[in-house]
Every structure is written in structure tokens, then in C-alpha cells.
Amino acid sequence: MGNSVRLALAILLATSSVFNADFINVPFAQQSSSALLVNYNETDGEPPVPVITTTPEVTPTTTEESTTTQSPDTETGPEATGSPEPTVLPTIEPTESPEPTPTIFPTGEPSPVPTGSPEPTITPSIEPTLEPTIEAEILRNVMPSHSEDMQRILDNYIGIIVGNADAQTSGNNIIASKITTIQKNANTRLKAFIAENNRTNALFNGIELGTKEANLTNSFNYLLQMAQGYHSYVDNGNGCGVSYTSGTPNCYQDNQIPEAIVEGLNWIYNNYYQNADAGYYGNWYAWEIGHPTSITKILALMEEEIIQRDPTLIPRYVAVMDAYLRNGSGDIDLDSRFHTGSNLADIAVNRMVQAALMDDEPRMQKAVSDILTVFLTIDPNNIQHGNTDGYYADGSFIQHHRVAYTGTYGINLLDKVMTTVKVLKDTPWSPGNQLNDIVLEWIYNGFSPVVFEGYMMEIVKGRSVAKNSTGYSNNPRFIEAMVSLSETLEGAERKKLESHLKYVINSCQSTSAFNPSSINDYQAVIRYQEILSDGSIPSECATESIHHYAFNNMDKNVHQRTGYTFALSRSSNRISKYEYMSGQNKKPWFQGDGAFYLYFTGADHNEEYGYQYIATVDPYRYPGTTVPVETRQTISELYGQDWYENPDHDLGFTSSSVSQNDYVYFPVGTNTYSGSAVLGNYAVAGMQLGDENAYAAKESGILPDDFVVYKNAEANKSWFMFDDEIVFLGSNIHDKKNRQVVTTVDNRMVKGNVSLTLADQQGNELNFTNGGFNDVKWVHLDAPENKTVMGYYFPEGENITLSQEVRSGDVKDVYGTKSVAVNNKQFVTTVIDHGANPDYDSYSYVLLPGMTKQETADYAASSDKVKVLRNDESIQAVKQLALNVVGINFFKAGKVNEFSCQNPAVTMIQKKDKELTISLSDPTFSQSEISLFVDGKWEKTDSNSDYRVKVNGDVTEITFNTDGKNGKSILASLKLSASQPETTPEAGSGSNSEETNLPKLDFEVVNTGVK
After folding, report:
1. What is the C-alpha separation between 606 and 591, in angstroms, rounded?
2. What is the 3-state secondary structure (H, E, C) of 288-304?
3. 376-410: b or e for each residue (b if 16 or more CB lie within 10 Å)?
């Protein structure tokens, strides 16, 4: 099998620039040659999705509610839509569950259970997955004895779930606490276990089975908690299954548990699980990932006890779990839209463990081959199996085909990858350390840039941005992955990662930032504490503190400076404006329309953003957005449930249809222009506002009459990101429905005493009261309790509305159904009102993070900071005078200063003496070439083949090869020709009235000048 694994990897990785070619030639341990590589190749290509390592606990539903979907990435696992969340004893440190896509069936005919329906609608499969003779086949070969390698996989896996004997008896206080929680959970579940002679339709009290897949999920999870208790060592003399007013119950090796587990699994199998031919109800995720994850852990933990009592149980369950893989016809299908990224990895890990239980080498080979595909960098120019989910070369991570998801699905994938490495350790299937460089690349260039002082940023969390949790609680799996990876490294690389891990922990400013008991693997707990207590390991960030990350493949930007980090969320016809699903993130309409988040160094970021912010902020006033003034309804308000249902329409709208994804759950925009260019540590970004694609589809008659759509305002938007300032420009602001339009300058949640100051164009300070102010030059905000000190400068003067108010809300208004009150949050909101039916209005303002009031006033009074060169419907351009850096967004053909372009382009240019450095990017991802024209005669000074230079008279044409670059910045270095005297237009001259050097354009140049 060793040669087969190597060949599979060679096929997978031959075209991937991420892998070093030497990796393929590194021999694996000797294996047999029986691997069914042909089977793998038939489905090869689509990168899989990460798996979660521990079983999440799902809140049980009551008999009154029915469930159609599970909530994705909750730390306690998939949550049933519409179900209340009764108080239950939490499972020990569950992992963040990935976010499932709603249900689909093998026939392609989704059949969800409508909320309130007493009976589920079940779609039968086309072909029965289970053969009629399967029971006889099982009995012919009940349970093979395990090979040494298969047993090692099971031992490795069990070690992750409950630790080994050394870890359990290590005396480690965190592990002891985890075991205490495990024992309490096991005791609680055993007490709730219903004896067979008293059982009707529930295995546990209050968890009725038959119509709610969340209750079935809970039942398997509770059996798993009992199995964990059975294998978690405690020596306190107590028993299990009785009430304890004090002390810790002890379910370790209590014979009640294996008897209950085997009998309970058989009862569920016979009554609610074996009939896979009937189809499944509720969420596909529960049946293909959720249930199998819990079941597989139970079978691995209790294998010996199960075989003693019923040797057919394990193969029967494995067969039915295969049958429920409807989206993969009994196995992972790399062509399935469900078997991608994190989801694929979950399934693959389950199947690896099942292969070990069954001593099935072909199954093991296929599962390992499948999960190895997640290491492939997604190449947008060579999409395999239609899959766009995974890690991109620029550090982006996409899930659900078009949602920026580093913060939840991405973390789950990272976690599952490390689980795979640990499970396969010391076996013939182990890749050893050959994948380390890839995972390190993910950590340093993909994950770490969006984790600021231990806080996962809002821009990469999909619908989980509204979840009742914080950016700190998103990171336990990230921390654990770094701990586990560090053990496979040596020398400088190991010390670098351990130092970075230490920095991530130590930089957290919240008292609730990170709880080490949330680490699942006991060995990782021990290693984590060793790293933190090792004085020879410094606490050092492995990434630069001053840097700009352009994640153009997911339309996001992160601008890092010593005192702050600025995060920007864009969208386009490639990347969704937001994600909503399962009643989660109910008011997301403008989250991808240029919304920004400004995180201050040293702050508790829970006090700046997080669920409390999302639950209380005005959803029409996200910072940086330009929106029409109107009231919108949530999906549940529009349709009485969490999705739009119309299965008879040509697009077949159901809870899990492709049309639901496209037009409800994660709609893209209609705009093609969204991009950014990076020059050193500086950047310019731009986008045109677009409508949701649903609006365009409705206008063209594609969507049903009762499908409600909303139209956005029209605008061009740009951001110019330097050191001390971030410049915001807006132009071409109008509304085709003649509504009032407003731009939110900022909307900050602050704490404690707040000081607000503002001044007019003459620098005279004005008395602040809530309301409107005309011709404002600058505003200053000082809220020292949460480190918020900043200024706002308006270069052209603006009429603004400034307010300070206390807002309250409830999490259930934006996420799920559980009420979590969020009271008395202070907000300072600055708004520019463009009026009703604005006539191509514009705005300009400069964010000044960390500046005192005096520094803000001095900045506004200075003439040597920034200059707006153009701000109209064709071009937005700004010059940072001290740096001599110009950023330009060419929305249409035109010229600014000595630079002209006739294509959509985003560019940043720095001039030093007689040298030019240019960074240019294609914001449409669709152009093969872009030509930038520069006055004067310039010569190329580098060997970059991605551009060429041609001098035409007194104009130099620089043609950039943007074909297939997918928004990547292309750098060009030039010098003024010796035959050309330097003639540079006056700095800050704005739009030029004479454009004699501008080449013939394909369309009219609009040159209206600055506002």
C-alpha cells in the first residue's frame, strides 16, 4: 500500500505549487500493494473539508418542536432550528462544529421537515444502499482481529478522545477538571437513561425520537458521554448513576455503562436508524457527519465491550453509516457540493477510524487519499470537481463556495488536519512531517493575520458573526493545532511556532480570552502548559506587526499597525455579501458592502465587537457602509420560517436547494469591481456597490412573484491605507428608487466615560449634542476604558449627524431562538446624510486611529498629510504627501496627475527621485491585460515578466499581464529615461483638464473633478 499512497499523492500534488516535489519521493513505510487506487482516482480532485475532533453536544428539542436544520459552527455542536435550549450539563470541551448546508437527498429532491410538522417528509433513495443479504454477510465475517497498524490507529484516536492512562493519571489540574466534567456528564446521562421495559419513543428522558434529527443527535452524544465516563479514570470510591449533592460521581469501568450502551445502540438501530433506504429527515449534516462522528467514537471507545455482548453491532452500524452517505453514494464523493473542505475532512476521519474497526485496508486507503486533498491550494484557474472550498495562495479560506470562512470552517479544517496526523502517527498511512510546511503556511499567512491579540476577526466568520460567542472563543482549535504541530517540528521552526503560540495567548486582553480546558487532546493540554511555563521560549509574534494582507480571493483586507488593526469586508459577483442560514445572522444585509472593524491594541475586543455588538448595532448603520433608508424584514419575518419554500417553482426552492444557497443563504453581488493593490505595507482597495444577485434575478423574471428582494444604493467606494491614516472616499452616490441614502462614517461600541469633540472648518470647537452639524472639519472620540482614542478628519468638510446613545438588544433577534439579553451598550455614531434621491453625491473622510484630540486638530490643520486627487464616478485617487504614494481606483477610463488607464484597475504608485514603483491589480478578475500610461519616458529596471514597457513619444505604456492572476498585485519598477527630463505635474493637482497624452479610449472619460 505504500507505493499506492505515494502514487495517489503524486497524482494529487503534481500540479500543486504548494507541495515541494521532493515530498512525493519521500518513502512511506512499506505497505501491501492491495490499495484500490483506481477507486480513488475515479473521484479524485475536489478538495475535502476539515473534520472536527470531538463530539459536540446538541441541545435537545422538546416534543413540541420539529427541526429542519442544525446550526453550524456552534461550540456545542449543531443546534436545532427553532428549538429552545434547555439547561443541560455541557459536554467536555466540545469542538466548534462546522456549519452544515441544509438537507438534500440522493435523488436531488430535498425534503425538509417543516417547523411544526408532526411527521417528517421522507424521500426514498433511488437504489437501496444496503444489500438484502447484508446481515448474512456480517455474520459470515463478524469482526476481524486488528492488524498492528489498525490497532495503533484506534489507540491514537482513543488517546485524543479520552487520553491515555499516563495522561489521565498525570495529576494535571486541567485534565483532572476535564475528567470531573466527563464523570458528571456520564452520571447525568445514565440517570436519564430509560430502561427498555419503560421505553416508548425515547432512550433518554425528554428526548423523543422519530421526527427530529437533533434529538437523535443528542441521543448518540449522550451515549458517547457515558462511554467517555467509562474510560476516564477516577479513584474516589463513588459510584455512577445516583444523585450526588457533593463530590464527583465515578463511572469509570462501571458495568452499567457498557450494558446500557450496547442495548441502547441496538434499540436505536432497530427502531430509528437501520432503514437508510427510507431517506433521512432534517439536516443532511446530522446524518452524514454529526451522527457518524458520535457513533464512531462510541464504537472505538467501547469496541471490546461491544464485541463481547454483540459482535454484529459494529459492522451493522458501519454499513448503515455508509448508506447514509447519500451525497456520496456510500462513500466520500469529491464531486458532491456537500463533501468539500471541513465537511469532507470530518467524514474522512470517521471513515479512517471505521476502517480500523473493520480492518479494511482499501477503505483506509480511500479515506486517507480523500483527506489528503484538503492540503491542495485551491487554484481558481483550475477548479477541480467544481469545488472552490479551501485554502488559497493569498491566504483566503472559502467555504460554501463563496463565503469567507477562515474563522470557523477554516479553523475546523486546521483542527481536523492535525487530528489526522495524530491518528495516523506511526502507521504506514502517515505522511510523517512532509505536510508541515503547508500547515505552517496556513497558520502564518492565513489564520494568524485574522487573529488579532487572540481574537478572531468578524470579517471571516460567516453567519457565526452573530453567534452568542466571541472572537476569543473561536480560537481553542487554532491553539490546539499549533500545539500539536509544534511537536512534529524541530529546531528553529519549532521554537518559532511555540513563540508565536505564546504570543497569541499572552496578547489576549480579555479575562475570558482563552481557557486551556477547551483543548481536547490531553497530551496537547500537557504540552500547552509546558510551552507556557518554559522561560526559554519567548513570546514573539511570528508575523509582522506592520503589514497589509490583501485577501482578494475572499474580498477582505487586513491592515496591521502597531497600535491598531483595520479589517475591511468587501463583496462582488465572486464572493457573497454575507451568509445567513438556519435563523443565524438574521440581519446581515450590509456586512459585505464595505463594512469595517477597527481593533485597538491592548483592548478587550469583546468590548469593541463580538456578539454584543452584532446584537445591538443598528443593522442599517454598519461602519463604512452606504445604504438606502428603508426597513427590511428578516427571512423568518417574510416567510414564517428560516428559508423560502417553493419546491414547485422551476428553481425548486427548498431548505437545501442550490437556489436557496444562491438567493437566500449566501448571495453574491452584481458588481464585478472589487479588489485591492498592495505596495509594501500600504494598500488601496475599491469596490462598486452592487445589488444582491436575487434583485437582478427578480428583475429579469427568474424568481417567483412572492420572493421578496431589496435594492441597494449605487456608489463607488475606496479605501487608502497608510500608517497614521485610512482615507475613505465615496462617489457616484445615487438611488434608482429615489430613496434617502446615508453613509455611516463609524459606529463604535464604547465603554465608560466618553469624550466627544468636533470642530468646524475654521477649527472652532463646537458644543456636542446629539444631532446635525454642518461643514465639520474634524471629530475626536476618546473612550479610554476600552482603549478607543481616535480622530475623524473631513478634507472637504462634511455635514454630519453625530450621536451618542445607549442601545439594548437580544441575541435571538440576530441568531437562533435562545434569548440572551444584551443591555445598555453605548454607541457613538457618525453619519453623512446624502439626502433623498442624491444627485451623484460624494464623501471623503480620514480615520485617524490612536490620535489625541490635539493631534487630530493638528492633522486637520496641516497641508502636508493627504490630498484627494479625484473623487468622481470615473476615478478615486488619494496622495499621501509625506510618502509620495498615490493610490488610484479606475472605475472608468481617465487620468489623474500623470497616470491614465482605460481599463478597470486598482493601483498604488510610489515615486522616489527618478524611480517609480507600481503595484497594480485587476479588480474584476476577468481581464487578460491592463495598460497603465505614465507621462514621460520610463525604463524597466527589474526582470518581472508579468509586465512590459513601451514608450510612445512622451508617454510610457506599462502593460500588466493580469490573466489568471485573480486579483494578485503585480509589481513594476521603473526609472526615468536618461533622455527624458523629469516633468511631474504639481503634487495634488487633482484631475487634469488637459489630457493630450491620454491614448484613444474605448468609452467616454467622465472627469468631473473633486467634490
Report:
1. 19
2. HHHHHHHHHHHHHHCHH
3. bbbbbeeebbebbbbbbbbbbbbbbbbbbbbbbbb
Q: Which domains does the chain have, with CATH numbers?
A: 2-73+97-109+124-139+146-533 (1.50.10.100), 547-861 (2.70.98.10), 866-976 (2.60.220.10)
Residue 222 gets which letter from DSSP? H
Look up residue 728 and give its three cell numbers.
Answer: 475613505
Between CA 141 and CA 418 the distance in angstroms is 33
- Cα 169 to Cα 669: distance, rounded to the nearest angstrom: 56
Which of the pair, 70 or 929, is modelled with greater confidence? 929
Confidence band of 64 (pLDDT split at 50, 70, 90): very low
Contact 387, 334 (CB under 8 A): yes
In contact, 757 and 765? CB cutoff 8 Å: yes
User: Under DSSP, is residue 614 helix (H, G, I), strand (E, B) or coil?
Assistant: helix
The alpha carbon dihedral of 468, 572, 924, 995 has a sign of: negative
Q: How far is CA 185 from the centre of its chain?
A: 31
Distance CA 60, CA 212 (A): 9
Grid cell at residue 964: 489568471
- Grid cell, residue 504, equals 497569541
Compute the CA torsion angle 106, 83, 589, 457 (nearest 10 deg).
-90
What sign results for the dihedral spanned by CA atoms 348, 352, 353, 357? positive
Question: How much of the chain exceeds pLDDT 90, in percent?
Answer: 74
597-620 pLDDT, tens digit per residue, is 999 999 999 999 999 999 999 999
Q: Which one of the listed residues 337, 463, 780, 834 is annotated catalytic?
A: 463
Dump pLDDT digits (tens) for 777-810: 999 999 999 999 999 999 999 999 999 999 999 9
Between helix 491-506 and helix 522-533 the angle, nearest 10°, is 90
Active site residue 409: yes
Q: 100 in helix, strand or coil?
A: coil
Q: What share of the chain is helix, strand, coil (3-state, %, to 5)?
A: 30, 25, 45
Q: What is the pLDDT of residues 820-830, one digit of tens each?
A: 999 999 999 99
Catalytic pick among 409, 528, 578, 639 = 409
Q: Exposed, middle or buried by CB within 10 Å (0-12, 13-18, 19+), for 84?
A: middle
Question: Which of 299, 273, 281 lies closest to 357 in space, CA to CA?
Answer: 299
Q: Is 734 a catalytic residue?
A: no
Q: CA-CA distance, 919 to 909, in Å (whole number)?
A: 6
Q: Which three cell numbers stand for residue 439?
A: 500547515
Angle at 549 between CA 547 and CA 554, to 5 degrees: 170
Burial class (CB in 10 A: 0-12, 13-18, 19+), 33: exposed
Question: What is the average per-residue pLDDT within 974-1000?
Answer: 52
Would you say residue 72 has pLDDT above 70?
Answer: no
Per residue in 108-165, pLDDT (tens digit) is 333 222 233 323 322 323 233 333 333 333 333 444 568 999 999 999 999 999 998 9
pLDDT grade for 515, boundaries at 50, 70 and 90: confident
836-882 residue pLDDT tens: 999 999 999 999 999 999 999 999 999 899 999 999 999 999 999 99
Q: What's the confidence (pLDDT) of residue 283?
A: 84
Answer yes or no: 639 catalytic. Answer: no
**Amino acid in the structure at residue 203:** L
- Cβ-based neighbour number of residue 1011 at 10 Å: 19
pLDDT of residue 320: 95
Whether residue 63 is predicted with pLDDT greater than 60 in this model: the reply is no
- Identified catalytic residue from 400, 401, 477, 621: 400
Q: Give the residues across from 915 on adjacent strands.
A: 912, 975
740/746 Cα distance (integer angstroms):
19
DSSP 459: G
| pLDDT at residue 142, rounded to an integer | 42
Residue 308, H or E segment: helix 303-309
Type of residue at 285: Y
How many C-beta neighbours within 10 Å does residue 561 have? 20
